[in-house]
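Next comes one such specimen:
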Amino acid sequence: MKEWAPKIEYWGKDAAASVKMGQEFLERKLYDEAVNEFKKALEINPHMTLAHLLLGKAHIYRGELAEAKQRCRNALGGDAERPTAYLMLAYIEYMGEDYGEAMKNCTEAVALNPGADSAHALTGLICRAAGKMEEAASSFERALEICRDKAPLWMLAGDAYKKMGRYDEAAEAFKTAVALDRQSPHAHYLLGEIYMAQGRYGEADEEFEKASAQNPVQSLSALAVVSRFRESGRYGEAEDILRMLIEKHPHWAAVHLSLGDIRMDEKRFKEAAQQYRKAIRLNPALAVAYYRLGTACEAMNNTAEAVVQFKEALRRNPDMAAAHTRLGNIYAGRDEFAGAHAEYIKAIEAGLKLDGTGLH
């Protein structure tokens, strides 16, 4: 197979060509090569703010967050790049859980480009992480005023409404998300949960059925009831339903996942691991089962086995941000900082895809 090569060829000192080549490398996730090209551009033109901005992005992907921050700050000198530079700075601080600094930078991004839905969405995510649900909902609403055809934005708004007990508004938001993306099991599941909270059990059952048809892990209504019992600490009732389901559907992996989750809540980690292994035997392709088995192993201080299971989860779903984060934490605990950085950056990449901020 012929090795990929960038489309652009250039001769002499051409900063713009180096930037374009670096962008191609960036799109191909060839981050070292991208960094080299952006640095070439800056050697030719040290004041090229676009090169600083893109170099900052490449540094983020390589886990070099201090360098990324500095490059983003350098990019603040360019009028065209300034809003994105502030947004990238905000996202770096958000991932580092420094919500105060994240909000300062995001506020600047919104002021410079109030028509960017991604800036309002990130503001909402920061507010939500800080527990400010009213402000989060307002920010998601502003993002939706700008762009109404993104299902993830409607789900974010619906989640904020749900957390505030505004179920009617949450239901409308999730219904819109479903209408925009009928193949999203998560949207159907969220709508089903709201219907359950409203006592609309028939409609809830329909949504859970749709979610299950698209993704067996987004379970049927019986498992939704189990989830509600578990959330309220009614483990005995939840387990009664699960035992019935295991008898009726002995080959249904999701039931064993749910029973494992209850055992985790009860801190019966060995039994939880047994249930997750049963789920894996029934459905070896189920990434979430390996992830949860990894968390059980980690809870038993068996980090070597946890690493194996998190890697198995990621082999099946490379965009599972939580698994990347868990791996990063284990590596950091072993002082394997290069490995930790790599996993944290992969978690950031996966988060960018899911958050709907438009930064990736």
